[in-house]
What does this fold into?
Amino acid sequence: MQALWMVLASFLFATMAVGIKFASDSFGTMELVFYRGIISVVFLAGVMRAQGISLRTKVPMMHLWRSVIGVLSLSLWFYAIAHLPLATAMTLNYMSGVWVAAFIVGGALLYGQSQRQGPLFATVLMGFAGVVMTLRPTIDQNQLFAGVIGLLSGMGAALAYLQVTALGRVGEPETRTVFYFSIGTMVVGMSGIAFTGLTPWEKISGVAIAWIVPIGVLASVAQWCMTRAYRKGATLVVASMQYAGIVFSAIYSLLLFGDHIEPIGWAGIGVIIASGVLATVLRARALPNTPAEEH
It folds into this structure.
């Protein structure tokens, strides 16, 4: 089941987030974006050389669009995190799954295939309901602008995921797709550092330094898994599976940071898991002989 790559990607992204939480005590946001990008570029360049994959691409504009929309979405999310409660910012960003489903179902309606997409759309909504139960987001009246920014970050992420699917359809290798996105991340981080500056060496902790390389490698592998999932898997199933990231994040918060999960949070985690299982079962039963690329 190709969509299960999204579960692995979610685990790796959650692990990367742990590293960012530790590293952010010493480094600024733009520094972390830059380090994540440059380490990913170096790591992926080595992987591509080992695999014999050329940097040359026949669809440079598709890569440019994926990088621009992906990095823009990431920047909007960082803004939302800075101006909203963390749970609210994460929930709005995780609406990307709902946006993906909306775009897919909208396209299906144009071709009279809504009966095939409706049940899977429902599992995506079910998973998002689990996210809301787990995070229980709130927003004040003076945070409405930041809320709109957070909402746009989720929409941008959805467009980036669909662009990843499109790149897969034209035959672009996952590694090359992630490599060019990493270049975009590195450039944006470098541009940000030009305004925010670098953290003085004496203020950087050993723990923060130790996490820099793992953050870049985890980001690379997670992006590769996510790209493979959207390239090979059924898009709506993958969109449902991405909510696993909330489950892994909650477990890390419980084990590493001593956070408390309320009963409704555990119920939300159960709903997220159930939505992923249901999406997989529905896909297998409804379209047993349909290639993954047909959404």
In short: Residues 288-295 have pLDDT under 50 and may be disordered. The two ends are 15 Å apart (CA to CA). The chain has one domain: 2-286. Residues 2-286 form one domain.
